[in-house]
Amino acid sequence: MHRLLLLVLPVLALACNKQDYIYPDTFHPPWPASEIELKHGSTPYSLTRDLKENRPSVTLLFFGFTHCPDICPSTMQRAAEALRGLEPGELGKVRFLFVTVDPDRDSPDIARAYAKKFHPAMMGLSGSSQEVKAVIKSYAVHSSNRDGEISHSGAIYWITPDAKVTKRISQDFVSKDLAHDLKIATR
Predict the structure, then answer these.
(1) Is the dihedral of CA 36, 38, 41, 42 positive or negative?
(2) Helix (H, G, I), strand (E, B) or coil at 64
(3) Domains (range + CATH), the chain
(4) CA nearest neighbour of 94 among 51, 132, 131
(5) Is the pTM of the predicted complex or chain greater than 0.85?
(6) How far is CA 7 from the centre of its chain?
(7) HEC states along 123-174?
(8) What is the pLDDT of residues 72-105, one digit of tens each?
(9) DSSP code for 29
(10) Pairing of strands 58-64, 43-46
């Protein structure tokens, strides 16, 4: 009987954890995360390589641009507050990716500096127009540029270690709620 309990308890704990999330899974079934191959400053970044080598518990993916007057700075600030709510061991298991939708103005160095300004653990990614457009398309992100007026969707995608997109968190998320969910994911 003891052995059976030892086998069942971890499974029950995982099931309970899913129910404890404030932001539930959005995608049923989850969909495969598309590859992201861009640059963080002068350093190449690959989502596939990061998931394989570093195994973050959660990768948060946000699309925006550095000249954004409202959605981006607000979302980045609240996400940074959520990251500051984590213990160092938890923070080390979370990856936050800011991918620009404006590669013509946001070089890899500019995207990197923008993300770091909010939190040192945030990664700002950019690349050529074709590279960025491919990532935007693969995640079905709304983005348009009409005479320099850029609009874009403002959600954050939640990617699991097995490269599945399980959630789309609204831009109106609450920092402490996101921190709560990240703590659960990093257990």
Answers:
(1) positive
(2) strand
(3) 23-185 (3.40.30.10)
(4) 51
(5) yes
(6) 32
(7) EEEECCHHHHHHHHHHCCCCEEEECCEEEECCCEEEECCCCEEEEEECCCCC
(8) 999 999 999 999 999 999 999 999 999 999 999 9
(9) S
(10) unpaired
